[in-house]
Automatic annotation (TrEMBL):
Domain Arrestin C-terminal-like: 177-312
One cellular-component annotation, GO: cytoplasm
Species classification: Eukaryota, Metazoa, Ecdysozoa, Arthropoda, Crustacea
Species of provenance: Hirondellea gigas
Chain ranges passing through the membrane: none
The protein, known as: Arrestin domain-containing protein 3-like
Pfam name, any one: Arrestin_C
Chain residue ranges for the region called Disordered: 331-356
UniProt GO BP: protein transport
Length: 428
């Protein structure tokens, strides 16, 4: 049986991508062919983080015997939750017709950015609900929006520092010992933003009596998830996600290989650290591998990399403005201070009747203190995460339009939502 009304959430900013401190503005559209008995129409904004993983562990029983068991670990955090009424009336009846109710919400500065991987996520979403009289289930619409963490690379001087590492490996085969394989690799700096290129230079010398099968560079995201089991015992799980790689062919015995300023373009990614979340942490590493002919083990050099959302000031001239600019800050629009329910506390005022949104504001650099310091920063673009590991959340609740099932009771998974991250556009 179809619900007696439909509910749709429309964001004023179609990309629905924000930074902490910005305002989420939009409207809730309600259509009902007949009057609906309801207590009101509520709006909820929430950010929650969850992890869910299992580990096979060996332990000793009380009788001293060894036993293997799979144990499950979970973790949950709530960064913010705000709920208020968009509409209510003493008659407890919503008249038939099409209605629009504007909403706005300021994203807290302290919240973590959006993120998802195989075993956990940070999800920002809003939910509009018609609370029907005498009915336990609501008619609702639930929509996610993406929040990008603010990580200014200029705040840490170490992000400007170039990195160089050297390594050497001597191959042995029975009683024979060959010359060494040596590598000197340089990376132009430590901190980058998505869209920038990591510039890799280096020299590999093969003085051994075996060929080197290949040399390659890989960018990895290392995710650490923290959960507790039923006993309250905490455990970490580390996941490695290879984001991109580039390789060069074999090096013959006594040969050399040169990496002369190879550019590795950083894809859209969440900022390092996932600041504000205590159960998920993100770090990035650049791994350079020299692989001799097997059975020899590889020579590996690893560089720590910081991914930020505001680039180093001296690199601003390398960028051009993106095709999808930021929306300027928007106050709550369409609300009447005299209408609606009691507005004491932190609840925004509520409209007593459907009201249309004002015209969208002009576009400009967002009003965020971190961006105010850089008026010459070209605005970036926004792109969905490209890695498959960042697009699937098996434990996240489904997002959908109107339904007779309450959103908190959903058990389906999100099927189409993937975070959208800031990315800067290099000059050609």
């Amino acid at each position: 049986m179809a619900p007696p009304a439909s509910v749709t959430i429309v964001f004023l900013q179609q990309t629905a991508v924000y930074f902490p401190g910005q305002t989420v503005v939009g409207r809730v559209e309600v259509t009902n062919a007949k009057p609906v008995k309801c207590e009101g129409i509520s709006m909820k904004f929430e950010c929650s983080a969850r992890v869910n993983f299992s580990v096979v562990e060996d332990f000793s029983t009380t009788k001293g015997k060894s036993k293997t068991e799979r144990r499950f670990y979970q973790g949950q955090e709530e960064s913010y939750k705000s709920k208020y009424f968009l509409w209510s009336d003493p008659s407890q009846e919503l008249a038939a017709g099409s209605h629009q109710y504007p909403f706005s919400f300021v994203i807290p500065h302290s919240c973590p950015g959006s993120f998802q991987c195989k075993f956990g996520y940070v999800l920002h979403y809003c939910q509009a609900s018609i609370i029907r009289v005498g009915m336990s289930k609501k008619i609702f619409s639930k929509r996610p929006y993406c929040v990008n963490s603010l990580l200014d690379l200029n705040m840490n001087p170490a992000n400007k520092v170039s990195q160089q590492m050297q390594g050497m490996k001597t191959l042995c085969c029975l009683c024979c010992r060959s010359g060494p394989i040596s590598a000197t690799i340089r990376v132009d700096r430590t901190g980058y933003v998505p869209g920038e290129a990591i510039v890799i230079c280096g020299e590999i010398n093969n003085a051994s009596n075996r060929k080197v099968n290949y040399t390659k560079v890989e960018l990895f995201m290392m995710v650490t998830l923290t959960g507790k089991d039923f006993r309250g015992i905490s455990r970490n799980k580390e996941e490695s996600c290879k984001l991109m790689e580039f390789s060069k062919p074999e090096i013959p015995e006594g040969g050399d290989c040169f990496w002369e300023g190879h550019h590795l373009i950083i894809p859209p990614l969440p900022a390092s650290g996932l600041i504000g979340c205590n159960i998920i942490n993100i770090v990035y590493n650049l791994k350079f591998t020299v692989q001799p002919k097997i059975p020899a083990t590889p020579l590996i050099l690893t560089f720590p990399i910081t991914i930020g959302s505001i680039p180093l000031h001296e690199t601003f001239g390398n960028f051009v403005g993106g095709p999808m600019p930021y929306p300027s800050p928007s106050p709550a629009v369409g609300f009447s201070e005299k209408a609606g329910l009691d507005t004491s506390g932190e609840q925004p005022p509520h409209p007593s009747a459907p009201m249309a949104l004002e015209d969208p504001p002009a576009y400009s650099v967002p009003y965020i203190p971190a961006f105010e310091s850089y008026p010459d920063l070209p605005p970036p673009s926004y792109y969905r995460a490209t890695s498959e590991d960042l697009q699937c959340v098996p434990s996240a609740p489904a997002m959908g339009d109107s339904s007779d099932d309450d959103a908190d009771e959903q058990t389906d998974f999100m099927k189409t939502f993937a975070p959208t991250y800031v990315s800067y556009n290099l000059k050609k």
